[in-house]
Amino acid sequence: MEETLDLVVYRPLAYLGVRAIKRTGITPDQITLASIAAAIGAGFSIATGTYVGFLWGAALVLLFNVLDCADGMLARVRGKGSPYGYILDGLAGYIGTAAIVLGLGQAVAQRWGQPILGWGLAVAAGLSLAWWCSVVDGLRLEWDRRVYGVRQDRAAELKQLVDAAERWRLEGSHPPERFLVGAYVVYVQLWSGRPKGDRVVEAPEDEIPAAAWAESHRPVLRLAVEAGPTMQLTAIIAALLLGKPEAVLVAVVILGNLWGAGVLVYRFAIRRQLLARIASEA
User: pTM of the predicted model, to two decimals?
Assistant: First the structure.
């Protein structure tokens, strides 16, 4: 479920940082907020349109991704993970990526001297990144539920969070957590549609044993994950080091969407095979 670049580059760097701070009073949520600050700083640096700004931007994008790995790692080391930390971490990813893409849009608009074209490309790239991150997240959640059996679907998770937020609203407490729940509700409804129930809805392929389901879907998940958020941020770093911010936006819009569409078509084909298998066994 992890991107290779995370395993070999970013998480080892995050691990060194977590070891240094695990006995301090720094909290995982503070690390998450620091990652947002790093991404916003990257956006401003990139927006200058200068090569020095690109170098600073690349360094801050690197820091953003390392901190994004470190917050959850610190929470697990201390045994204090929470669904609200998970939501904040996800929100930070979208805020940070948006800040970086906005910086890229400003830089491209300046370099091309065509603001409409530059910003149009940035908006298209930002929407493409958001869509694909949502797809990858959904595939990971599905793998967790079907293979590991350790997660509910989003409808059940969302209902629990909304119920808790309603209790806090009546009590007049936990305003930050209520805001996070509200943001998460918008996210789920925007990308996944309005949940229709409070439990996992059984599908025909649920009759397939977990091991067989995993064997057929593992290539789908790996293809999706390897083009996930970390690969995208690494491509941004590379483009900045080369002084070509426009290259990564074009690649996201064209190559990224082609890759995503191919993965989803492959997944559709795998699902049809599973359904045919169920029908033949019946």
Answer: 0.84
